[in-house]
Design brief:
Helix content is about 70%, strand content about 0%. The protein has 4 helices and no strands. The longest helix has about 40 residues. It is elongated and about 65 Å long. The chain starts with 6 loop residues before the first helix and ends in a 5-residue tail after the last helix. About 10% of the residues are buried.
């Protein structure tokens, strides 16, 4: 077969797969911690602030290490003033009036 991969190509593919597996195993604990924190944050907000809880909102706040008000507005989660209140509530850990 003229189009069959060569031994070198198979070895290269195996190296790529091995590197992928090693990276996966290295990063998996961090991903699991982030996932757990996301879940506990969602539970906390749902229990303490049911008025402002939204899965989309919680997911968006984990998209970056910070969350901009405009992101909540652009995602149609809240209007600007309400989004500002939501973020202040999370930051302070105080209930929304």
């Amino acid at each position: 077969m003229a189009n069959s991969p060569s031994v070198q190509e198979w070895q290269g593919a195996c190296c790529v797969l091995q590197a992928t597996e090693e990276l996966y195993l290295e990063k998996l604990p961090a991903v699991q911690k982030i996932s757990g924190f996301l879940g506990s944050t969602a539970e906390y907000v749902q229990e303490t602030e049911p008025k402002i809880y939204s899965k989309d909102w919680i997911d968006l706040t984990f998209w970056e290490p910070y969350c901009k008000i405009s992101w909540l507005v652009d995602a149609d989660i809240a209007r600007r003033q309400i989004a500002l209140g939501y973020l202040h509530t999370l930051k302070k850990g105080q209930p929304v009036a």
